[in-house]
Write a structure and sequence with these properties.
5 helices; Four Helix Bundle (Hemerythrin (Met), subunit A); mainly alpha; Ion_trans_dom; 123 residues; Ion transport domain-containing protein
Amino acid sequence: MKEKLSRLSMANEWFMGFLVLFSIFMLIFEETHTVTPYEIQIIDGIDLTIAFIFMAEFFTALYFAHNRYSFFKSHWWELLATIPFTNAATQALRVLRILRVIKVFRAGAHFSLTEQNYKSVKK
């Protein structure tokens, strides 16, 4: 059961990392191309959806945390990363989403080490 939860957690981290990379791609696209008002509306809608997914993930993790205060204290920046970037004032916070990519790579390294340890113990 614990292994399934670990795999589910890893899948969640990879999905969130994908959303971060997609969000960064949208930012680069928006800054490097001439976009029509219709395209801006689509990008803003996608960004708002991504922000809601980040917010749902953050509050779900907060709800299930053993120590909510400690969780919030160490993950507060993830809450800031949930803010939609539909205006210039909040677009600077997009950098915080990049930190999620770093978190995914760290989780992937941990998962790989855990998997190797599990296989060596199983032999």
